[in-house]
Write a structure and sequence with these properties.
Layout: E1 10-13, E2 18-21, E3 33-38, H1 44-66, H2 72-75, H3 79-109, E4 111-131, E5 134-156, H4 161-187, H5 201-210, H6 226-232, H7 237-246
Antiparallel strand pairs: 1-2, 3-4, 4-5
Helix pairs in contact: 1-3, 3-4
Length: 248
């Protein structure tokens, strides 16, 4: 427990015969992670079924709380029922949310979108403490979402590329925003002024902009200044390599 490993998820595209994967992940042994597949949209019955299982687990836990001396109601509970279902429900709700938002945004800008096979994870975040390179203890201070692959087939009704670009920009922002909005709605008390907050890429950018920090946009158009910009950023080596790989 506490050791970092390298993991990659992929699915086989039968039309091309190729494996299509997301980014490499670095989970830590001991983390509890739920993976959800969104193949062609999340059906309402999927949400109904997972909610029924959560309600059943809650009823057992409440029964045990009323009589802690009798463990019978929770004796049969597994970790999948106790925590796995909640983790799974969170990432399932994420995909249901972005699918619904995608359909609404498509109608607004005059586009058609179809969800293609996608997948993502939600789980506990482990924090190991090392002693001479060996994990000595592990704590679990957070939960975290990692959506490895989101893919859709999008077409502008009028064939105008500008409509398609507008749709994808708006939806891309929601892909990121829902990564903090869904966990916040499920794991925090919205009426508590001191509640914990989740963070996502778009939320981090908004906070940075509100603080007056400089935000860089790297693209092929400004490739000549990439190395200069990256050399000035106080980021770790892994993040720098990712940017260099994406924008050589």
């Amino acid at each position: 427990m506490g050791t970092e490993i390298l993991q990659n998820a992929a699915y086989l595209n039968p039309s091309t015969g190729q494996w299509e994967s997301g980014d490499f992940n670095r989970p830590i042994v001991g983390e509890h992670i739920a993976t959800t597949l969104d193949l062609q949209g999340i059906g309402a019955q999927q949400l109904v079924r997972v909610n029924a299982r959560l309600e059943s687990t809650r009823a057992k836990l409440e029964q045990f709380q009323q009589n802690p001396l009798d463990p019978t109601p929770i004796r049969s509970l597994t970790k999948e029922e106790y925590s796995g279902e909640l983790l799974y429900a969170t990432v399932l709700t994420y995909f249901a949310s972005i699918d619904s938002l995608g359909q609404l945004l498509a109608q607004t800008v005059g586009a058609v979108t179809v969800r293609m096979p996608s997948f993502g994870n939600f789980g506990t975040g482990a924090r190991p403490l090392y002693f001479f390179g060996t994990p000595r203890s592990v704590s679990f201070p957070s939960v975290q979402m990692d959506v490895d692959r989101i893919f859709g087939a999008d077409v502008a009704v009028d064939g105008n590329p500008a409509s398609l670009i507008s749709f994808r920009k708006a939806l891309g922002g929601q892909y990121s925003a829902q990564e903090h909005a869904i966990p916040e709605s499920l794991f925090t008390n919205q009426n508590d002024p001191n509640r914990l907050e989740a963070i996502s890429a778009v939320k981090a950018l908004a906070i940075a902009a509100g603080q007056g920090q400089r935000i860089y946009t790297l693209s092929q158009a400004n490739a000549a200044i990439h190395e200069q910009v990256l050399s000035q950023l106080a980021i770790d080596a892994l993040a720098r390599r990712k940017l260099q790989t994406r924008w050589p």
